[in-house]
Design a protein that fits this description.
seven-stranded mixed sheet
């Protein structure tokens, strides 16, 4: 994912072959990031020779039908494999008003059939966000030369436009670089600290891999936050997310998530495992792999801002 000049992009790279699992994954990702302009990259997709009236190969036709068409944020598909350069545009009516409103540029670039494997020619894309344009050409640092194919500039924003042996192109893309506002009812922010609450070794609890850290002298009816830092004998370090709990009022019993079996283990103290009471001990369960050590560390400051 890339963000530049107020425009958010997602570039999805896929493997050689595309099957149902890959199609499902691409659709999931593109739907999850539907607010980002999307470029898809494949090994094969657009050919440099037409077959049955299209430059798209088998996988290209499959992906266009089941991925490109279904995701309005996709505006370009890039690939290589086929020796040469070609493009084919397709348009879609995303809002169903009977008029095409999205152009997808399907472009193949592969110079390896040239001398010395292509003389280092590279296809470049220049993004002009202010004017809703992408300019394309190629350049060889070895030859200090622009454009493997010396042809005129092609403007691609036309339904069914296609050609081969072209390097200089202009793509029309509707970018959105306006200032955007995120509306949320509330948010939480944590200020991380290095105040160590304690250490515990998972090996001390046998083969369960469960580590328990007890806290003392907590204030009643108070929000607390903590996170865990897990290390092993190889000095690998992993940090958890931040977890929160609120202490109960004095002598109020609260179950914060211990299982029935956990609760039975503590019946002799007439308190529920996980109950957090003023001046008493609170237990934090750090679930780590056997042989790892965990440290509970306080994220002391919890800032919560609610919508006015």
């Amino acid at each position: 994912m890339i963000s530049e000049g107020g425009q958010d992009f997602i570039i999805v790279y896929m493997s050689w072959n595309i099957y149902q699992d890959e199609i499902d994954w691409m659709n999931q990702v593109l739907s999850q990031y539907s607010d980002r302009k999307a470029i898809l990259c494949f090994h094969t997709y657009t050919n440099v020779k037409q077959s049955s009236g299209t430059y798209l190969d088998y996988y290209g036709q499959l992906v266009q039908k089941y991925v490109v068409e279904k995701n309005p944020n996709v505006f370009a598909v890039l690939n290589g494999h086929y020796h040469g350069s070609s493009y084919e545009t397709v348009m879609f009516d995303d809002d169903g008003d009977g008029r095409n409103d999205r152009t997808v540029y399907q472009i193949c670039t592969d110079y390896q059939s040239g001398f010395e494997g292509g003389n280092e020619y590279i296809k470049f894309l220049y993004f002009d966000l202010d004017n809703n344009k992408i300019y394309m050409n190629s350049y060889s640092p070895c030859m200090d030369d622009f454009n493997y194919y010396d042809t005129e500039l092609h403007t691609l924003n036309t339904e069914g436009a296609s050609a081969t042996g072209v390097d200089q192109m202009v793509l029309d893309v509707n970018f959105n670089t306006k200032e955007q506002t995120i509306l949320e009812k509330s948010f939480s922010a944590y200020v991380y600290t290095n105040e160590k609450l304690g250490n515990v070794n998972a090996e001390a609890d046998g083969a369960t891999g469960k580590a328990v850290l007890e806290l003392t002298n907590l204030k009643e009816n108070t929000d607390y936050a903590w996170y865990a830092v897990v290390t092993n004998t190889a000095s690998d370090i992993e940090k958890s997310g931040v977890y929160e709990f609120t202490t109960a009022k004095k002598n109020e019993r609260v179950n914060t998530g211990g299982s029935d079996s956990d609760n039975q283990e503590n019946t002799n103290s007439d308190k529920l495992i996980g109950s957090i009471e003023t001046g008493d001990r609170a237990k934090i369960w750090l679930f780590v792999l056997l042989g790892l050590s965990a440290s509970g560390i306080g994220a002391v400051t919890v800032i919560k801002k609610k919508e006015a």
